[in-house]
């Protein structure tokens, strides 16, 4: 009945909104990236509401979540999704130089940076209520 998500990625601690934004970015895949699979605002809202309800229940704060709370987290998640694109783009550039893995790291970096610049105007225009 219970699900627990554990992210061991580089064993680093990230901001909550970064991990969720990175999770949403990964909907697009890695080797055959398709950002049309990035969750739309409605799916993100449902996902974030469920997350906040579970979080509040776990912390003993009840389960009531306001639209404002969902909207604030939505904005934070999408801002950190931009940071995720930039981070993985830089990571891929480094891998392109040093990795022995057979993968098009340079192509992946280009895809991530392109998506960063595509999303940036829309995301930076979001205003916290």
Offer a concise description of the structure:
With 129 residues, this protein is mainly alpha-helical.
Textual characterization of the structure:
Keywords: Kinase, Lipid biosynthesis, Lipid metabolism, Phospholipid biosynthesis, Phospholipid metabolism, Transferase. InterPro entries: Kinase-like_dom_sf. Its EC number is 2.7.1.82. Pfam families: Choline_kinase. Pathway: Phospholipid metabolism; phosphatidylethanolamine biosynthesis; phosphatidylethanolamine from ethanolamine: step 1/3. By secondary structure, this protein is mainly α. It has a single domain, classed as Alpha-Beta Complex (Aminoglycoside 3'-phosphotransferase, Chain: A, domain 2), CATH 3.90.1200. The protein has helices spanning 16-25, 41-59, 67-98, 105-124. Helix 3 packs antiparallel against helix 4 (105-124). The N and C termini lie far apart (35 Å). The mean pLDDT is 92.
Largest sheet: none
Strand content: under 5%
Radius of gyration: 16 Å
Number of domains: 1
H and E string = HHHH
Which architecture does the CATH hierarchy give at level 2? Alpha-Beta Complex
Architecture blueprint of SSEs:
Elements: H1 16-25, H2 41-59, H3 67-98, H4 105-124
Helix pairs in contact: 1-3, 2-3, 3-4
Organism: Mustela putorius furo (European domestic ferret)
GO molecular function: ethanolamine kinase activity
Family: Belongs to the choline/ethanolamine kinase family.
């Amino acid at each position: 009945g219970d699900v627990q998500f554990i992210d061991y990625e580089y064993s680093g601690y990230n901001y909550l909104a970064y991990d969720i934004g990175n999770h949403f970015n990964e909907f697009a895949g890695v080797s055959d990236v398709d950002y049309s699979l990035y969750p739309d605002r409605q799916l993100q809202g449902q996902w974030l509401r469920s997350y906040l309800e579970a979080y509040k229940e776990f912390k003993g704060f009840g389960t009531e979540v306001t639209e404002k709370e969902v909207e604030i987290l939505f904005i934070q998640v999408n801002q950190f999704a931009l940071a995720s694109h930039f981070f993985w783009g830089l990571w891929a550039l480094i891998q392109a130089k040093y990795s022995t893995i057979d993968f098009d790291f340079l192509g992946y970096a280009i895809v991530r940076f392109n998506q960063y610049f595509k999303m940036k105007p829309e995301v930076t225009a979001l205003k916290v209520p």
